[in-house]
DNA sequence: TAGATTGTTAATCGATTAACAATC
DNA sequence: TAGATTGTTAATCGATTAACAATC
């Protein structure tokens, strides 16, 4: 299998950004792409790109580069994006609603099959075509769907409580958009998506950026 | 000034997560907090927490820890969150709308004063109390407001084009929620917020996580 | 005083970058 | 062939972790 045990987080985070670049070149009719070209486009080091790509198990040909078809396949397989994965979303508030409408997910094989909320005015409705179900019966429904991935967009105060229900229902991957740090068993993967970290980076970059003349 | 030239990105990204923990303890009436306590709460190494905190210029007292009042001040000052910063948002689609409704921003001193869109049906309306203005006059309005920060939530195809307008209008910090890699002058800070990187991490963690029994 | 915790210097670890032979 | 690019090994760099004296 291509998926390495000793994966490097930085590599995994960079890999998805290569895909649109490669796809653009494919659209232009190219059959091969070199690490040099990808690196230039994304303002990265070409050695780094080559090393990242080698993680996926692909091999290139000197002078030509990597066969585009095989390369996209290899990246997607490495990331687990080659087959679709069902997911549910909990908390159909502002952010939850936005994520339900984020069509790009399907491109990555993520298929949100249902959303849950506690607000009785939302239950039964559809948001961006996805049905909102009662969060109280979440446990049973998740087991029925046999779904493994959950997007967590509830208020931070209920995050841990909700996560506990999810884990008990068989969820093994939680994409956590709340600010709360979750405590889960070690067989459950949690990916923290933290806006305040991003904002902190922006501000510090602005403070330290060279001033415009 | 506390803001170091040689800031470490990892430290900057971790610092915001300390704030809610510290605030919780403050609510409980505590006056001091130790790195050990913060580390335990966030499942981090206490040495790492101490080193991160020292970046802000705060000094603690052995045995007691850090004075909570001073510590929150120091972190917020370091991150530039002590004074409010005006910002505009471009692209009032799904994600843009969600961000307009994300009240947490105010806590970090980010104040979105207006949003821009090209959709004539949205122009003139208010979303979460924020007025939607015509994107065609964006240039002039940004200069009038003298605003420096922009949240970019337009479709990826128009990202570079929009960024060029923003930069010409005097924006020096772009929080980029599009998948596109932006090319900007070096005095402009760009913070890329990339959902596909987060999803990639989640999937790889799930693939490599120890199986449940 | 004894012990917890700070602040700092040194050691380890991992990721990025450099170097270079292999090859199409 | 000559030159661009791969794949890989070595060197550098930075971040995390360990160690420990200082101190309240």
How does the major sheet of chain A shape up? 7 strands, mixed
CATH topology of the largest domain in chain A: Rossmann fold
CATH architect. name of the largest domain in chain A? 3-Layer(aba) Sandwich
The end-to-end span of chain A amounts to 53 Å
**What is the overall silhouette of chain A?**
globular
Low-confidence stretches of chain A: none
Work out the helix count of chain A. 9
Instruction: Tell me the strand order in the biggest sheet of chain A.
Output: 5-6-4-3-7-8-9
Radius of gyration of chain A: 20 Å
Q: CATH homologous superfamily name of the largest domain in chain A?
A: NAD(P)-binding Rossmann-like Domain
Provide the number of structural domains of chain A. Answer: 2
Number of strands of chain A: 9
Task: Write the H/E string of chain A, N to C.
Answer: HEHHEHEHHEEEHEHEEH
Helical proportion of chain A? 40-55%
Largest interface pair: A-B, 67 and 67 residues
- Averaging pLDDT over every residue of chain A, what do you get? 94
